[in-house]
Specification:
By secondary structure, the chain is α+β, with helices and mostly antiparallel strands. 33% of the residues lie in helices and 22% in strands. A hairpin with a 3-residue loop joins β5 and β6. The longest helix is centred in the C-terminal third of the chain and has 9 residues.
């Protein structure tokens, strides 16, 4: 497929491409954004009155986690539900690798 892509043969690429559908869950990762330190903590201080605006502001801090990984994170208490349907990652986060499960 990569050869077809590099040759700009998009009709062939479209026939070879397969999207992997997998259920995911959104999780807030409270990393420090250089332009807005403490932004996540500020957003999560109280339940949002305007959910659309709240999620727009939270967007830079959201990751998509596979459902199986999400369930594992719940079991091992690496995420907590701060508001109904809003989950916060509480374990380590590496800017290069993403979420880190303990010593892994």
């Amino acid at each position: 497929m990569q050869e077809a892509r590099h040759a700009l043969d998009y009709p062939l690429v479209s026939t070879r491409f397969r999207f992997i559908e997998e259920e995911t869950c959104s999780v807030v990762v409270p990393y420090e954004h250089p332009d807005q330190p403490g932004e996540v903590e500020h957003l999560l201080q109280r339940e949002p009155q305007y959910p659309r605006e709240f999620f727009r502001q939270l967007q830079p801090y959201l990751i998509q986690m596979r459902a199986s990984v999400f369930a594992q994170a719940q079991r091992t208490k690496r995420i907590e539900e701060v508001f109904p349907g809003v989950w916060l990652w509480t374990d380590r986060y590496d800017p290069s690798y993403g979420v880190v499960f303990g010593e892994e």
